Fold each of these.
Amino acid sequence: MRKSPWLLLLLPAFAFADDVFLKGGAVFSGRIVNQTETMITIDIGDGQVGVAMTRVDHIVKGRSPLDVYDERAGKLASGDAAGWRSLGEWAAKQSLSAQSRQAYQKVLATVPGDPEARQALGFVLVDGHWLTEEESYRARGFVKYDGEWMTPAEAQMAQASADATQARQEAETRANQAEADKILAESRAAKAEARAQQAEARDTWGTPVYMGGWGYGVNAWPYPGQVTTWPAYQPPPQAGQ
Amino acid sequence: MSARRVRIRGALSLGAAAIFSITLAAAVAPQTPAKPTPTADQIVARYVAARGGLEKIRSIQTLREKGRLTAGADRQALVTRELKRPSRSRFEITVQGVTGVFVSDGQRGWRMSPFDGDTEPTALPAEVVSEAAEQADIEGPLVDWKAKGHQIEMAGRETIDGHDAYKIKLTLKSGAVRYEYIDTKTMYRVRTDSTRQVHGQPLQIKMTFGDYKKTSGTIFPHQIDIAAAGRPQTMHVVVDTVEVNPPLAEDRFAMAVPAQP
């Protein structure tokens, strides 16, 4: 349903985005850039994502925080450090990390030592020098393992655990592959089971982030811009296959 | 799907400074008769009273909190937590315009996490459902602990971020052990320590609570810091709004029907 342009004028500028609600509750919010009978593509401000229309429950079109960001950014002079700083802070509060990063980088272009911008971009002041987050962690002896910073001993244990899990899963997969293929071809129920197995395989590795008594669920810090199409892109079969 | 994976990180370094503070405090303490240490049961009773009292706490049937989560540079999210008696929980996290949903009714749970490539609901593993049920205890495990089958015992006193705190060992009915730190002055909870399995290894998690504010007669922390021992990064939650007893339809916690292929 498209809202009346007159109605939109009466609404707060940042109140609405193009919201694509999936069956089950997940939402993509941004700017719809393309829509066909089979696929919808949304610009989330850090790349575009495509979703099969069969997964879409409903769509609410409106003005996106990305629009607000672009509008505000368009009015700022490149040397307006205070303006870019304010915009960076605003974007961070909207969880628009890409836009926040862009705005703070504008600040640094004008004021290279701006502490707020430096900290927002992950720099750490060590002995009067700004180090990147990674540099500061390395300096403290931490290592990066699967995107996480941890002690070398923990990384070693995590790798050993991952290797064992992978070996077990691969063995199970090989053992079940022939039978699974046959069943998958024969019934929808088998497909559902396969999906469940895939989910379980992910979960055995991706232990959900523990958010204390406050929340649960995510098993990694999400980077939606890293994924461009849901479901995963399936290449067409090549000739002779 | 090749999303980068960055999990909880960070660690609070209590260590030497805290130990030194405790030692120094003991060394210079005046020679006055020491007050008898209250029992764990007495501390929990005072903690419940400080939160607003048993009647107020029990009157909370549903709860919705909205806030912001940061885990370092470039890692900001909007988060919403909804709880409903008994054991219903719904957690939503939005990053860069993409919202994932994690739901449990206490018996079963499901997620829809576009970040992991999910475009249809998938069941949560049993251990996550169990954890979700524990987190869905809307009043916290110390309230009515005995009736819930938990056990508590006094485990001493420690200084937590400058707060003198009682340390309570809490053994949940499930067998999981937590340590709850209650500020001796305010009687608010200032920290919870727990252990969980990550990558097959035990990982100590510290959660620090602060910026308490009252909503509908009950106090709630509006700042929560979450850190893992041995990790340099921390996760911060700032709670912007707390709604007590908002209408939460039962179907928000029902198992979603997987999409048909």
Amino acid sequence: MSFISYLINGISLGSVYAIIALGYTMVYGIAKMLNFAHGDVIMVGGFTIFFAVSMQGLPPMIGILLAVVLCTLLGITIEYIAYRPLRQAASSLAVLITAIGVSYFLQNMALLIFGANTKAFTSVVTVPAIKLAEGQIIISGETIVTIISCIVIMIGLTLFINKTKAGQAMLAVSEDKGAAQLMGINVNGTISLTFAIGSALAAIAGMLLCSAYPSLTPYTGSMPGIKAFVAAVFGGIGSIPGALIGGIVLGVIEILGKAYISSQMADAIVFLVLIVVLLVKPTGILGKKIQEKV
Amino acid sequence: MKGLKLSKNVKDNLITYGIVILAYLIMEIMIKTGHISSLLQGLLVPLCVYVILAVSLNLTVGILGELSLGHAGFMCVGAFAGAFFSRYMQDVIEVSLLRFVIAILIGALSAGIVGFLIGMPVLRLRGDYLAIVTLAFGEIIKNIINVLYVGKDANGLHFSTKDSMSLGLMEDGDVIINGAQGITGTPKDATFTIGIILIIITLVIVLNLIHSRDGRAIMSIRDNLIAAESVGINITKYKLMAFSVSAALAGMAGVLYSHNLSSLMATPKNFGYNMSIMILVFVVLGGIGNIRGSIISAVILTLLPELLRGLSNYRMLIYSIVLIVMMLFNWSPKLINLRKKYSLKRLLKKTGEVQ
């Protein structure tokens, strides 16, 4: 029985990873860059909700809305200031280092504003827990909300990309920027939109993550962020169903590793998965193989 | 120049060595005459550590052209290997200098071997993937050391990954690596002079490598991998060479670091991701690929926040802004054009034309 509850916990954690991984995968697919600061946008979302709900006493829904709006604006601003000027740069290293700088900046800004102490985050989820098998398996309200929101987001995003003009524009830009521009697509606008969606998802992920693991520090986002990137790579970067599969598999591996192997080594196990995947199938489960041309 | 004709490279290298030796002499004179605060004296060895780390990371980032975010992990390997040796041999080798030299060799060698082993699979990747995998390896190394327990007694060494009790030591046993508590009681053998000597050794290795045939091969891989491969350069060999030399030098810095502290723990603060980023900031500010720049920026960025005490809270924030601004300024095509338009050279030329 304990195995099943570990599995459910794993799927729940994996759903959060999947939502974060979506942000990575979309940005990577379009801008061809690793947005290192994505994990820290999660943290900003968490702190916004903490500030609005726990400190100002606003209702949770308004707090979540506020976090989504703020993170969306943050994502667009980061892209505009830090990444856009470097899009034509000769070195791909440049934009990666800038992204690390942005990540570091957000962490230290939060450190200055909120301090290094761990904040107790009160869960904003009010759904009651479900008891199964005569109370042997308890599925918490957070788990239910997380899994449901993950499914809703996946379906919504797939529909958005395949059925709307803006979504088709995203696909076109990720395929070939120059050709998309010639077809009259606003490339900069489309990339901004991608960052906006990714960051809004990060805010939701921040809410879910902090509700499930109710402690908040300026570094809350960095580890889940990196693991979500691992999930994105695992599933095949650039692929939306890949992010879902990668996220859930990784979440399950992490929770089972924590339970059965060693709680201290859980992070190491996750990273080991990444290394093995990259060595065996660098394009991930659902990724497309791209041949480098001279 | 009478008779003695030096090539540009040699001259350049001599200037770099000269700066280090001059800085050393000035510091020594200031210490002897007592013009230096105890706070600054305590910073001298860490300063040497950071300089070595910055120079060695520049070998990977600047010369090989791959971003490694696990440099602190190699430093961690070196620090623990060196400190372990010193603790183990504390009663056997009485001469502290000899013991320290062997510890440095062991630390550098073990970090180099780890670098080689990690490099073999990892260097097949490029760019973002390589960065994230090196980051992952850095975290794994830290995690492993945090669950490692090693003790010694009359029967030899005992290993465990559970706790110090399960080592099964005898009465006279001594726990050397105590899991998350790390190594305590490392002899404080590191001095400023040894630090400077290590910097010079690092510089000799790195500068000679860069200006050798091997170094040019490494740089050709950085500039164009496919072209380098097609003229018959063994990509794997040269990538591994640069990567493991860089790791070994980081390990050496780690040994110096560990012998400056009485207790050594693998915390996120000293061997984590943040440390790797800090070293990267040194390299970026000094100029990617510019060895002398790395030395200077490591010194400035270490001393400045310590001297301006009020800024210490903002230190990391300033680092991050430095990172972003430097990158935008150096690589953004628009800013490059702007810089060319208003560069000092051109302004001087213009005024010349007017006259």
